[in-house]
Amino acid sequence: MSNIITLLCLYIQIQSKIIIYLMWTVIGKYPLKNLYDEPVRKEYRKLQVDAMPVVETFEKLNYTELLKEYLTKHGKPLKPINRHKSSLPVANNIVCPKCGAPHSYIYRNNGKSKNVQYLCKVCEFVFGDKTDYFKNAAIRCPHCNKVLERIKERKHFYIFKCKNNNCSFYLSNLRNLTPQEREQYDANPQDFKLHYIYREFTIDFKPLSKETPVMPNVDLSKIHSSPHVLGLVLSYYVNYGMSSRLVQSIMRDIHGVKISHQSVINYANAAATLLKPFVDNYDYPLTNSICGDETYIKVNGKWHYVFFVIDTVKKIITSHHVSPNRDTVAAIKAIDDTLSKYKQIPENLNLVFDGNPIYLLAQHYFARHGIYFDVTQVIGLTNDDPVSEAYRPLKQVVERLNRTLRRYYRTTNGFSAFNNCQNYLTLFTTWYNFLRPHKTLKYQVPVDIHEVTKLPNMPARWIEMLNMAQEYILKHQAA
Ligand SMILES: [Zn+2]
Ligand SMILES: [Zn+2]
Q1: Number of domains comprising the chain
Q2: Which of 200, 218, 322, 462 is deepest in the core (most CB within 10 A)?
Q3: How far is the CA of 476 from the centre of ligand 1 (A)?
Q4: Which domain holds residue 383?
């Protein structure tokens, strides 16, 4: 019996493939894309993220002071370098990044090697040719401790590379090539990544800088409806995921209230603006089990990514960052939304994500700012490795959240503006964190505010949330 079913299933699969192929031949590629209107699940570039570099911060010194100290200590001045004719010259513009000593005090440290390194005679600092010392830091390869060279500038980051041909990392990668790959490498070395690479993000953004939230000026009394009507509208629009037109109909047909579907959207936007500071800055009781994932949503006809991060134990959404790109900058912002919700970042904080390298790059970014946490990547759809197997249940929490959002969002037919989308996500998060009973929490809401949950119905709870949000704003405006 089961054999027949398997066979029939296979048969159906083959038929559907044939149908798709025929449609493709008849109507061409483009309409097909519209039929299956989903963003292309573009595999992120299989980018390898290497270990963190060694970052050596140093105190700036003054070489004239150091020379004076030398003189008093030794009774004679420290002389500039007396170079032999055969020794390699050091260009006039080379200055010690640590003490500012001019080129006359600087040795070529590694002979004729192309990867030039210098040694300062005054302060004994070793430095590279093309390294950035603007942050009072030398970035060194974690494998060979050589200063990294800045090789490329991208929009949001610089690429640093260890160019040392004796670096253990490079040599081991080279050894691991098959003879065939080795041939390809010799012909086209640029197609391979064998040297140690580090990306230094240059985005203008200070992590955990919980700025005073922007306090909106929303006057809900301008809404020409009673609070109960506003509460009903939000309940239908958010809790039940109805479209604005459906809310318009139900308000008219069931409640005898005439409001336009545009008013529904306006009410939602006003409520979200009011709720945002409260929801973003609420003192959430978070655990150290955090998981994140991206889902997609349409804004103005274009796919955008929602970076959800959730506490998998408490079921509290800690980030709902929306971005047109699925990139490291967006991952950094989403993680920052989450980290800034902790009073103190727990020592054993572990963030679970998919295999996208942007999360490792984000981890590096925070480490460079002295903020540390672990990242566990759950790769693939099946539990074929022990790490994925252990963390898959966590990942499923956020995947369920994504499905919930997508089910609700479907009724909105996408958003006409980025702001509408962000506002919808603020309302969605408010509902999810404060108003929605959760099965795994024994039908409790993730964040139980008694003043809210004691109320008998959902419209009343929304209104209480709005009252609290307004009080929060008034308190902070007064401060
Ligand atoms: Zn120096
Ligand atoms: Zn190296």
Answers
A1: 2
A2: 462
A3: 49
A4: 275-478
